[in-house]
Amino acid sequence: MADKYRQALGQIIREPGNGVCADCGTEHPSWASSTIGIFLCQDCAGMHRALNSISRVKSVTLDNWDSDQVELMQGIGNSRAKERYEMNVPPFYRRPQKESVEVLKKEWIFAKYQRLEFTDADKQDAYNCAKKEGLLLKLGRDRKLFQQRKFVLSRPENKLQYFVIEDSSKKPRPKAEIDLDEVNAVFVPEKIGHPYGMQITFYKDGSTRSLFVHSESSKDIVDWYHAIRAAKLERRRIAFPDRDLDTLAEDLTRDFMLEGWLYKMGPRNEPFKRRWFTLDKRKLMYYEDPLNAFPKGEIFIGHRDAGYHVTTGTTEDKPTGGSPFCFTLHTPDRKFVLKAESKEEMDKWVDMLNKVIDMPLTPQDSKLAAILVPKKSNSIRLIKR
Ligand SMILES: [Zn+2]
Among residues 1, 75, 202, 285, which is most buried (max CB within 10 A)? Predict the structure, then answer.
């Protein structure tokens, strides 16, 4: 009997919509929620276990199924469940994919099935709001301690601010005021060493300033992330009322394309120094410490047509002393000789840099080039294109 039901399930999973995980789109799901009636990948199935009474997960191939459960899977399935649970997903909401950070997947699942946020648009006040206030733990600039800070996001003022919580007799002054248009938020759990860690970046005095924050609640940090995205989309909607929302919702936040340790040769061929590199689309930043507030340098990466390219191995005027895994980023007026710790790491960086160099330049990229233009604080001259 059990075989008969499993066979039936094998048929149902081949029906349109069921071939990918209902929550993250991963192909060939092998798990299912026998109460919600959807097929899931192993990761999402694991997160569904925390929904307890709402979702019962079973393996499609290993567990025993009964006729009622199979009937439910037949009657619902991924497409119908999507119509019900994703009826009102706002355009700014980040739908997780296979490679997305765990906290985004987890909160997507909770928002969808437990809090029914996308079934009822009235349940989105925590992020779709004109003003949001709350406490987050922020890393001090000395990088030693996370301390509670009050964050305030205001759409009418177009600002994200944070405050030190002092005695209430004094009028609090914001420690930072960030224009919403230029703020970016990225989940960086490994870098911060906390599963709900987020990096907020913005420009300050011509350089990229980073704030590192986390919350003890996954819902809270994901709400802040979406509050920033929602506010940015609202700004764009007002500025470009004729454009369609889905187009405006592209790139509300940008994940870093690649991060990691590399060794960098000095501008006058000084010995290699270990630096933390972050590739943020056309901006390559390097830090002494990954959790520093400001990078030591920022390099604008222009288009191949403008003379940007990457080579591997040695460069004539930049002797590497025979070190393996070296590669050179050529910009129109400087060569950056970099060294990875393994061939695999080197290939990753070279591939990603080439990908960026070949991307078409956007108006935002030109704006970025203008911001990164000459810095007196270090010897790198950045190129305006
Ligand atoms: Zn999944």
Answer: 285
Integer Rg of the chain from CA: 24
Q: Give the model's pLDDT for residue 322.
A: 75
Q: Using the mean position of ligand 1's atoms as its centre, give its distance from the Cα of residue 189 in Å.
A: 19
285 C-alpha to ligand 1 centroid (Å): 32
Quick one: pLDDT band at residue 354, thresholds 50, 70, 90?
very high
CA–CA gap between residue 352 and residue 191 (Å, rounded) = 20
Question: Tokens 């080197």 belong to which residue?
Answer: 346
- Structural domains in the chain, CATH included, are 2-91 (1.10.220.150), 125-248 (2.30.29.30), 258-371 (2.30.29.30)
The rounded Å distance from CA 72 to ligand 1 centre is 20
Neighbour count for residue 3 (Cβ, 10 Å): 8
Q: Judging by beta carbons within 10 Å of its beta carbon (0-12, 13-18, 19+), is residue 71 exposed, middle or buried?
A: middle
More confident position, 125 or 368: 125
Distance 42 CA to ligand 1 centre (A): 7
41-77 tens-digit pLDDT:
999 999 999 998 899 999 999 999 999 999 999 999 9
Sign of CA dihedral 199, 221, 142, 158: positive
pLDDT tens, residue by residue, 89-130: 999 999 999 999 999 999 999 999 999 999 999 999 999 999
Could you give the strand order of the β-sheet that contains 146-154, starting from the edge strand earlier in sequence? 176-179, 159-164, 146-154, 131-139, 207-214, 197-204, 184-187
Model pTM score: 0.92
Measured in Å, residue 279 CA sits from the centre of ligand 1 at 27
